[in-house]
Amino acid sequence: MAERHRDDVRPGPLEPYRAIFASRVRSQLAYRTSFVFDLLNSVSFGLLEYLEIYLIFHNVAILGGLDRAESLLVFALARSAFTLADLIAGPLDGIPQHVRAGTVDVLLLRPLPVLAQFVLGDVNLRRLGRLALYAVVMAWALGEVPIAWTPAKVALVPVTLIGGAAIFAAVFVVAGAGQFRLLDGGEFANGFTYGGGYVASFSGQVLPAPVRAFFTAVVPATFTGYLPTLVLLDRDGPAGLPAWLGWFTLPVGVIALAVALLLWRDGLRHYQGGGG
User: Fold this and answer.
1) Residue 163 lies in a domain
2) How many domains does the chain have?
3) Can you list the pairs that 152-157 forms with residues at least 24 positions away whose Cβ atoms lie under 8 Å?
4) Whole domain around residue 115: which residue ranges?
5) How far apart are CA 122 and CA 85, in angstroms?
6) Pick from 128, 244, 94, 223: nearest CA to 168
7) Please, what is the average pLDDT of the chain?
8) Can you spell out the DSSP letters for 112-169?
9) What confidence tens digit (pLDDT) does each residue in 219-241 have?
10) Does the residue 276 lie in any domain?
11) Does some domain include residue 7?
12) Dist. CA 230–CA 136, nearest whole Å
């Protein structure tokens, strides 16, 4: 049987996304020196976040029921999940600029989902530097904290990272959807995206009960680091926040993403064009 000519082979359904992603990666790697400095800059921000934890425990031994190594585990889990989500969904921060410039209209005319176009519009590889730093902190913390390892607990660590990334990605999507209804509401949305990522980096026990409830039931940030850490340590949670919830990070992330996509569709339907 004669071999089919390459021109007769139709590209797969994921080929447009692969091509866009590859072009974004090539554009960043084309300037190697600039890319290296971007990576170092990203790592420096991660070091400043780590320095905050270090300075806190330079003055106190226990914070929110956790010591330094345990708190660093919460920090590393939550920040790793947030950085993964930021790497994927971070470009949604630019929606207000697209709305003001009217470029959302252009995206609507293309034969690709608008959300995918936003996500692939700015693949920021420099965040990988910060992610590598968090991985080092996590490895150190996991070696320092007293964990009675079981197969379930071993699996919990990567599952928590995936579920946590899904949770934060959902927050980015919801915040982005809100930009189609708000007038220049970027700063308001950042309070939930980056604010949620910051809150997740600390023990949930340091938060007042109403704030803790908000960042568990509405923005489920405590599921990304604090609750899984309690499970790993076999600790009880504070009142109203049982530690066994830490096993449910991935299901919560899936549900959060499903709700976020529904809100995205509703927000996009509300968009009326660059001229209002």
Assistant:
1) yes
2) 1
3) 153/231, 153/232, 156/228, 156/231, 156/232, 156/246, 156/247, 157/77, 157/228, 157/232
4) 15-270
5) 13
6) 223
7) 86
8) S-HHHHHHHT---TTHHHHHHHHHHHHHHHHHHS-----HHHHHHHHHHHHHHHHHHH
9) 999 999 999 999 999 999 888 89
10) no
11) no
12) 20
